[in-house]
Specification:
alpha/beta, Rossmann fold, 6-stranded parallel β-sheet, two-stranded antiparallel ribbon, 5 helices, binds zinc ion
Length: 197
């Protein structure tokens, strides 16, 4: 489990350095739960926390980051990663959910915020339905201080799953996560499924 490198940090003892954390994995791997866990701990430490998500993700609620277990936390939907520079100014910790749907400028923005002394925690899908690196996530993994891959369980065979296998028709990459459209699969079951399609 991820332990904050400076868990006792607060406004009085605030260290001048920021950093970037990436939490990534397939659908149903608990990315958002892990993001919320880290953000709640920052809140307990009385740090100023702001959470952003792409305005495109309107699955459940306009202003809450909602994970599949309904563990919710307030968030701000934004249309461009650049908006974070205006809105995150005096934060100690910035969370980004569903980061794979942001524009390619997200890495640049996260680096700027971290350089300002902000702790930036980014959660997102590392691979799309075809198993390819997804949007700005691979770049963020490269520049992050800490990368955590979380895993789901393959619904076909029960092994550890890293892939989001798409059950629905169509090939639009931007399809939002719902239980009926995707399932978590291990490499073997993912490859078998892709051959059949
Ligand atoms: Zn499997």
């Amino acid at each position: 489990m991820f332990i904050e490198p400076q868990s006792g940090r607060n406004k009085d003892t605030r260290n001048s350095t920021g950093w970037i954390e990436v939490v990534c994995g397939s659908m149903f791997s608990g990315k958002t739960e892990e993001l919320i866990r880290r953000l709640n701990r920052a809140k307990i430490a009385k740090l100023k926390v702001e959470i952003f998500k792409p305005a495109i993700d309107t699955r459940y609620d306009e202003v809450d980051v909602v994970s599949h277990n309904e563990n919710a936390i307030r968030s701000t939907p934004i249309h461009s990663s650049q908006d974070m520079l205006l809105l995150a100014g005096n934060c100690d910790v910035v969370g980004v959910d569903e980061a794979q749907f942001f524009d390619e400028g997200l890495k640049e923005v996260c680096v700027k915020l971290a350089n300002q002394g902000i702790r930036v925690i980014v959660a997102g899908l590392d691979m799309d339905f075809a198993g390819n690196p997804f949007g700005p996530i691979p770049d963020l993994m490269a520049v992050a201080e800490f990368v955590t891959k979380v895993h789901a369980i393959c619904v076909q065979c029960g092994e550890v799953a890293s892939y989001s296998f798409r059950l629905a028709e169509g090939d639009k990459t931007v399809m939002l996560g719902e239980t009926e459209s995707y399932e978590a699969r291990c490499r073997k079951c993912f490859v078998e499924g892709m051959k059949k399609n």
